[in-house]
Amino acid sequence: MPDATQSNPTRQDFVASGFYYAPEKKPSRAAIRGALIVLLAVFLSAGATFWLFGPRPTTIRTGAQPSQVLPAEIPTDPTVRNPHSIAVTPAMAVGVVYVSADLPTKISSGTGLVLSDDGIVSTNYHVVRQTTNIRVRSAEDGRTYSADVLGYNRYEDVAILKLRGASGLRTIVAGEEPYVGDQMISVGNSRGGGVLHATGGVLLDKNSSVNVESSFGGFGTDELTGLYGMSTAAVPGYSGGPTFNLNMQVIGMTTAGTEEDENIEDRRSFALPINRVREIATQVQAGNEDEKLRVGRPAYLGVALSSENLPVVTQVIPGTPADNAGLQIGDKIVEMNGKAALNAKDLLQTIAAANPGDQAELTVERADKKIQITVSLTESPVN
């Protein structure tokens, strides 16, 4: 895997997209009870790994579910085996790819699904969010490609990629809608190791809703709805990978899961139905944007916001749209394009709905006065 310190975006690139890049804090055991993880593996430049955890606490609406508990510390014993693990067969690699991308000091790693022979690939948005230099490797034959984000729907955690120079690829085979009780197999790039692993279970629920860490700066949570809830016990790195039926047909794209160190049998996985994934891919390819689906890279403002979820500017990046428009540290952005910003997440959602090149009309509180500032948004340097 390439050195994450080479050709990486800087912390300022993250800040400049209107995203608060918060320092990492180790949660207490009490704080992580009831949490979800997005199944993303992230590698530090030194080679260590950690899991990107969801919010605390988290609610799950799936009927009668056991309580979800996360370990206070990441297990490091490689001999601990997932009892849900099953043997990987060649059929599980068809149309499946490993996805990796650069963060400022880390490498994000997940899984993807080949939807067309010319290189349209789906993965989770959280795998490629705020990254550069996306690399994709076929799990079937090892061919590698650079990739671009064509578009994404962060509200359903889906990103659609296009592999550069790809042709003649084998694609996944989509299956019909499953039934509760059907046996399922989730497959993915376990812990970002570049090797497929598989875990088995059954379909428990066809309309699960889960809360995960917000894609809007990590402020609060985002709710993902309409998911398949399963007992397949997926692990970090499975993000964006396939969940199969026993005919090796893909019925969903694995997105999130629970972790519990005391009873591994109670782990749950959640997948977005494959038909919905393909609908999003078709919409992206057609260029049909709406308030949730965006095509291309996001709009770029160029500020850091308060870690207290306030729309208060804590940093202005030189040479960015915010700097050029005269925004200052301490400014409180209370409205953008007529939409109130009661907190930082509100503001980031409004920025996310804009396009590069748009004129943004900001209402700013500065020194007890309200002023109007016009900003010309540009394209973000990160995905």
Task: Work out the radius of gyration.
Answer: 20 Å
Helix proportion of residues, in percent?
Answer: under 10%
Unreliable parts: 1-35, 44-80
Mean pLDDT: 83
Provide the domain count.
2
Protein name: PDZ domain-containing protein
Transmembrane segments: 34-53
Organism: Propionimicrobium lymphophilum ACS-093-V-SCH5
Keywords: Hydrolase, Membrane, Protease, Transmembrane, Transmembrane helix
Describe the SSE topology:
Layout: H1 11-16, E1 37-44, E2 49-53, E3 85-86, E4 96-102, E5 106-114, E6 120-123, H2 125-128, E7 132-138, E8 144-153, E9 158-163, E10 183-189, E11 196-213, E12 221-230, E13 242-244, E14 250-257, E15 269-273, H3 274-286, E16 293-295, E17 299-300, E18 303-305, E19 313-316, H4 321-325, E20 332-336, E21 339-340, H5 344-352, E22 359-366, E23 369-376, E24 378-379
Antiparallel strand pairs: 1-2, 1-5, 1-14, 3-11, 4-5, 4-7, 5-6, 6-9, 7-8, 8-9, 8-16, 10-11, 10-13, 11-12, 12-15, 13-14, 14-15, 17-24, 18-19, 20-21, 20-22, 22-23
